[in-house]
Design a protein that fits this description.
alpha+beta, globular, 11 strands, Jelly Rolls, two-stranded antiparallel ribbon
């Protein structure tokens, strides 16, 4: 059986989450030897591994993630994750479909899972995290209904 995760929802409680400009940015920590059962995400997303190691299994293939690895997953692709002995800390970037449609008008976009070693990603994320923690003493900025920078996602109010 496959679990389908909606926008901004993960199996573990996020450390922090923020929605901005067609993206949902979420930091999540996983305990040692944690296995996420087969699931898919409603939105395409990038998973940047900040700490620990993860093995992602999909379609009889495996992707290995270690610090500075960036994994892209298209929306709806079923996969499972295993966080090894040290557990894991990841930064997820969910992408709204309208944003991907706009980018497709100008660029070719990968439609399969892919893993890239990208140390610059981790450096940029950790620098921005440090900056946001210094600014945290100010008011929280609301960027999307139901999501506040620096907090966990909440259910969005029903718009119907």
């Amino acid at each position: 059986m496959e679990i389908k995760l909606s926008r901004g929802h993960f199996s573990e409680s996020p450390v922090r989450s923020c929605g901005i400009a067609g993206f949902v940015l979420t930091e999540v920590r996983y305990p040692p030897n944690h296995k996420l059962p087969r699931h898919s995400h409603e939105r395409a997303c990038f998973m940047g591994v900040l700490q620990g190691e993860v093995t992602e299994t999909y379609a009889n293939k495996k992707l290995a993630g270690r610090p500075s690895t960036l994994i892209f997953r298209p929306s709806g692709e079923a996969h499972s994750d295993y966080f090894h002995n040290a557990g894991g800390r990841v930064f997820l970037i969910e992408i709204e479909p309208w944003w991907l449609d706009h980018v497709r008008e100008h660029f070719v976009i990968v439609n399969d899972s892919v893993s890239l070693y990208c140390p610059l990603f981790v450096k940029l994320f950790l620098n921005s995290l440090h900056s946001s923690e210094q600014e945290r003493s100010g008011p929280t900025h609301h960027t999307r209904p139901g999501l506040e920078c620096g907090s966990s996602p909440r259910e969005e109010p029903d718009q119907s």
